[in-house]
Amino acid sequence: MLRFAAPEVSVTERPRLLLIGPSVGSLDAALAGIADVEPVSAGAAEIAQRLRTGQFEGVIAAPDLVAGMIDRFHRDELIISHIEKGLAVLDSTGTVLWANPVFRSGAPGEPVGRTLFDFLGSDRVSIEHVESANGRVIAAATESDDPADPLSPARRGAATALRVHCPANTEQPFIEIDVRPVIAPDGRVNQLTALVRNVTSQVVQQQKLDALHAAGRELAGLDADQLTDMNVEARVELLKSNLRRTIHDLLHYDTIEVRLLDRKTDELKPLLEDGMLPEAAQRVLFARPTGNGVTGFVAATGVSYLCPDTADDPHYIAGAAGARSSMTVPLKFQDVVIGTLNVESPRVNGFGPADLQFTELFSREVAAALHTLDLLSAQQVCTAGQSIESVNKEIALPLDEVLTGASVLLERLSEADPDAAVRLRQILGAARQVKDSIAQVGRDMTEAPAAGNQPLLGKQVLVIDSDERIRRMAHLMLGRLGATVETAGTGADGIALASDADYDTIFQEVKPPDMGGYECYRRLRAACPSATVALTTGFGYDVAHSIVKARADGMRHVLFKPFRQDQIVRAVTEGDTARAGATG
Questions:
Q1: Strand (E) or helix (H) holding 259
Q2: What is the pTM of this model?
Q3: C-alpha span between 239 and 232 (Å, rounded)
Q4: Which GO terms describe its biological process (predicted)?
């Protein structure tokens, strides 16, 4: 057994000894004569607490008990050392006290004795979120936290997630740190644990997604007035120029071909090509699963196709000189194939799953741009219905501005100036009557659409989005589905509209330009309790966790841009069902 020699003390000052585990038998009587012995169970937590607070001069334990404790310690250390994530123990100031091998491999040098962020070589630290005691995300930070001290929430006792940029570390410049407080018996935070993981691949992927979305926003490239003055050929040349630039600069593909599907004949007509053989560019292809190359197969099935080796593929027909592999994706708008995008490489297995993922995402933006520029119907005879739709497209946003301005003023003057409020309500009614009258003229001049083609007929929908292109597309798509649409560019304008109208559904972008997404969501629900509120998002990261918070409040639908028809119909119709069930 272990014995710690007791120091020589006076008769009136006896040393205190801690006895771990069971009695040591014959040693009890000898110890009782010279010291005060206090027993404690063999539980690690209780031993640690007594040692921290007891001021003992020595510890006594049986040899087999000590051997077992050392064995458990060795086993625990072995487990921690083999954790795939970096783990470090910090003091309350953020200085590293201990680190496992994975953490040490994250940067050169010895981490112990250095602050966490100094060792990692970080130049930028952001607080992603802070958790309450029950693990619920409560905020990115609070007023009591120092923005210059990212560890302050953890020292306050809250688990904290940090995103750190380490520019000198080329292998893992972006890392995520989960900081957890170690709370002492007296309630103070005396240490912190930091669990570190490399998130560079996720961050780089998100940056590519953001770049894709930004490129998609710029594809159409001109405002409505400019497009009105352009003929079909000019519009096509505009899109071809923008497509070439974005495909080369963003996706880094040099050999490309884009074809559009003629729905009447199923012919895939060339729109643009770079680097293709002349005979390939002029080849007549149809959307058929056989006999029309990979492009025809993709257009017929609506499924992307990776050709790893052109020498051994039954569908491949020569497209580019020296091509050894190809990748072809369908261009889809509202889940309908409208064309194909094909790229080729001089290397076998030149394209992988990551290339396919980003090309498919980009193809959605290409399809949206094709639709926005109206390339698919530009050569068709202009009917009365198309003329009405064009008028609607031109006046929709200006009328929305009138509605928004009147609603904001009404909100301010409804009590202070009743006469002005009456006039503003007349303006609102007149503006809405103009929209209804144009829609009625369109219905009178064209054949009434089948009921199944307008599943949202009679529905009132509000769309809040800072992107004018999205607002225009919302008018076009929702109008074709039969809904009455109003839009707003800011959260405040949307709330003003919602306060004076009875919408069935409100689509709100996840982060309006003038307020927090969750704040806007709550105020919309309060302003128009009968409406279903759904959040919309592109590829950006939801930093404030507005979607998580809104889902906790009962939100059912999140829509991704560009909108899909089935998503919109489901959000409106299922929202109505949910409300009916809740009130019934």
A1: strand 256-261
A2: 0.41
A3: 11
A4: phosphorelay signal transduction system
